[in-house]
Design a protein that fits this description.
This protein has about 240 residues and is of the alpha/beta class. It has a single domain, classed as Rossmann fold (3-Layer(aba) Sandwich), CATH 3.40.50.300. The chain is about 35% helix and about 20% strand.
Length: about 240
């Protein structure tokens, strides 16, 4: 349960939502996305999320959930095409603009060539990238992703994080729930750190991710090594009670 968690965000930011297991990262994202009950207030473009129709909301915010299961053996192309539904009526066919958006999304996450395969036949990492393409195909100005690097090999993890930075540079707001402290330190502009449903810190990675704070929140000792390409956070050992 979240307790008095509040923050504002603007376009062009990459925000990492961090915290140990059970801290409330996924709950925070789902509360903002109207996927979990909340007594709080959430506004997008100074408008309550409850004033948006389902179609309007889908045009405003795209979401990659933590759960990557797909119930139907759909083709990759069909899955990505689902991201364009907010721009179509129930009976309309995909437009050229829809096809272009889907193609750009598949190129961005390196799944071109998989269009004809069933998503149920793909590896976990391939499936994650296809679902990311579906979210990107929505062309929404806000993108939420819950553990987007989970299940990806290192090259695709870095490629995806670079994509998030590129999207933010183009004016998107990107909010990521992450476990990897080193990714957050290098790729996020800002960290929102949660512990047991409470907001512990909110600010630049260099201020939020100190060795002392990580020890306190995560219960493990770390070393932070400054590198020319950014800080490297190395877990040393769990700070177990005696």
């Amino acid at each position: 349960m979240l307790k008095d968690v509040g923050f504002s965000a603007k376009s062009g930011e990459v925000i990492g939502v961090l915290g140990p297991n059970g801290a409330g990262k996924s709950t925070l994202l789902k509360s903002i996305l109207k996927l979990a009950r909340s007594t709080g207030s959430v506004r997008v473009d100074n408008r309550s999320i409850h004033d948006y129709s389902a179609q309007e909301f889908a045009r405003a915010i795209a979401y990659l959930p933590q759960d990557r299961d797909v119930a139907w053996p759909m083709s990759v192309a069909s899955v990505v095409e689902l991201g364009r539904l907010p721009y179509r009526t129930a009976m309309s066919l995909p437009t050229e603009q829809d096809a272009e958006a889907g193609q750009r999304a598949m190129e961005a996450v390196d799944v071109v060539g998989l269009e004809g395969r069933r998503i149920s036949e793909l590896s976990g990492g391939e499936r994650a990238r296809v679902l990311m393409a579906r979210a990107l195909a929505q062309s929404a100005p806000v993108l939420f992703a819950d553990e987007p690097t989970s299940g990806l090999d290192p090259a695709h993890q870095i490629s995806l994080l670079s994509l998030f930075r590129k999207l933010a540079g183009e004016g998107l707001l990107v909010i990521l729930a992450l476990h990897e402290l080193h990714f957050a330190a290098r790729w996020c502009d800002r960290i929102i750190l949660l512990e047991e449903g409470r907001l512990v810190a909110d600010g630049p990675p260099s201020e939020v991710l100190s060795e002392a704070r990580i020890n306190s929140v995560y219960g493990c000792d770390v070393r932070i090594i400054e590198d020319s390409s950014g800080p490297i956070i190395v877990p040393i050992e769990a700070a177990l009670a005696g």
